Structures are given as structure tokens and as C-alpha cells.
Amino acid sequence: MDEVNVYIYTTVKGPKKKHGAYTYILETDTAKGTATRSETKVVEEVTAHRAELIALAAAVKRINRRCVLNVYMDSVYVASCMEKWMDKWKSNDWKNAKGKPVSHMEEWQELDHLLDKHNYRFVIGCEHSYYEWLKSETERAEKECIQ
Q1: Which terminus of the chain, N or C, has fewer Cβ atoms within 10 Å?
Q2: Range with the lowest mean pLDDT among 5-14, 21-30, 126-135?
Q3: Boundaries of domain holding 12
């Protein structure tokens, strides 16, 4: 099974809704060498968690075959929810432990559907070769949006 590295960065930080941007890079090895695809988008009036979910879904939508995904991002929230809570939410009709609807339920349901055919793992908070480029590209897009 092919392996794809997914690198994600967002400028939206914290629980308050605000404008920002995200960038993702998809990287895989091919017969001709390493291939990458990237996209940067502006998001409006979103929390950090929602921006991270939107970015991850956008990246995974670009992958058209079953593969192993290595997801590199800063979000402990997304990783721990995917690894620890997703199955519980699904079996509990998308309600959290307190019986309330899961925050960002539509985004989680979309990710559940998108990731269902893949094997995946999350790598959190590590600096990688794309980190500085992701950060500068995303911050540039955010500044252009504000002006």
C-alpha cells in the first residue's frame, strides 16, 4: 500500500472565531521521485479546531487511492479525537460523554468517511522539512486576506 505524508499548518489559534488560513502538502514517492501537491486557503470566522478539521479534510479529499497516511500537524486535539473518541462518538449517535452533540459534528463525520478507507497515524508537534515553508505560505495568505 502506498504511503502519503500529509503536512498541515493553520494560522488560526485559540477558541475564538476569526479569519485565518491553512496550507497542506501531500507528499508521496513515485517511480520518478518524490511528488508533492499543496493548497493554501483562507478560512473565515472559524475556531482553531474547525480550521484544523477543514484543512485535514481538504487534504484527504485530494487522495484518490487507498494508502497509509502519516499526518503531521500541531493539533493534539484532532489526533486524540481521531484515535480515542471517534468510535465512541459514532456508537453514541455523535454525542459526547455528557450526552451533548459533538462539537464540529459535520466536520468529524466527513473526516470519518474520508479516512475510512485509509490507515493513518498522527505525528504531533514535530518540526519537519516543510514546516518553515508551510508557516510562511500560510501567514502570507492570511495577511493578503486581511488587507
Answers
A1: C
A2: 126-135
A3: 2-146
